[in-house]
Amino acid sequence: MANWILLLVALASLNLSLCKREPEYFSPRSCKELMERYKTEEDGLYYLTSPTGVVYQTYCDMTTAGGGWTLVASVHENNLYGKCTTGDRWSSQQRGSPNVPDGDGSWSNTVTFGNAEAATSDDFKNPGYYDITAENVAVWHVPNNERVGRWKLTSFLRYHTESKFLRSYGGNLYNLFKIFPVKYNAGSCPANHGPSVPVVYDVGDASFNHKLFGPHVRGETEPGFITFRAINNERAAMAICLGVKPKGCNTEHSCIGGGGHFPEASPRQCGDFASFDWDGYGTNAGWSASKQVTGAAVLLFYR
């Protein structure tokens, strides 16, 4: 009888010990970890976990240039005629007021919005934007309102960096834009532009990229780069120049995500896609961008 009692006590003690153990959770921090640690190879939507335990869904590109790319944000122009109004989350929803020089401040804050599946239909920003430590970025241009399963098929321009430049800027765009704030009067052109980083094209090429912008823009830019925090003649700041490096100071015609106040013809320059329609919507003439690039969401990835 005593032996049975000792056995029961031992089993109870073992069960209690097992209950106290931390369970192993499937909780990758990035698509790169998901690929390397869990051997995931297919493109698609997956769940990731932030360091603070926030679980969120995003898209993983597991096949381009070695895979492991995490979608962290998308910039979608919901209304090019609604200059810095509702929906312009990457620039300003306050009409570009001079009293709010950094607009909504989304490039350098921890506010999140949207959802991954609707990233071509609305702005999107997840915790990975500021939580993931990365080395490179990739950019996809995908027509507005495309379903997630067709993104790669319908994207007409895709490019990525390979220089591991983010190592010098805190490992992500959140930290980069702390160094180069996207706000009015943060500096002058051309002295205070942020970094211009060479890109490798996965779909399209530098020539095609350049032709997506009007002839005046092509005369003031060099293709084959992604540029961060470019400032225009009027000291307004744009976050990302799409596949180009500015040589002039009319950056509002090829760069997205302008922060805060735009003095020239304000708020005509203002908005997530700034002045892509300066000489008419989608005309690809003068300073205007093509309809193709104007009507597409810009998807931003880390690896």
UniProtKB/TrEMBL annotation:
Residues 88-97 have a biased composition (Polar residues). InterPro entries: Fibrinogen-like_C (IPR036056), Fibrinogen_a/b/g_C_1 (IPR014716), Fibrinogen_a/b/g_C_dom (IPR002181). GO terms for molecular function: metal ion binding; oligosaccharide binding. One of its GO terms (cellular component) is extracellular space. It holds the Pfam family Fibrinogen_C. Residues 87-107 are annotated as: Disordered. Keywords: Calcium, Disulfide bond, Lectin, Metal-binding, Signal. Gene3D superfamilies: Gamma Fibrinogen, chain A, domain 1. Residues 1-19 form the signal peptide. Residues 22-104 form the Fibrinogen C-terminal domain. This is Intelectin 1. The lineage of its organism: Eukaryota, Metazoa, Chordata, Craniata, Vertebrata. The gene is LOC100305006.
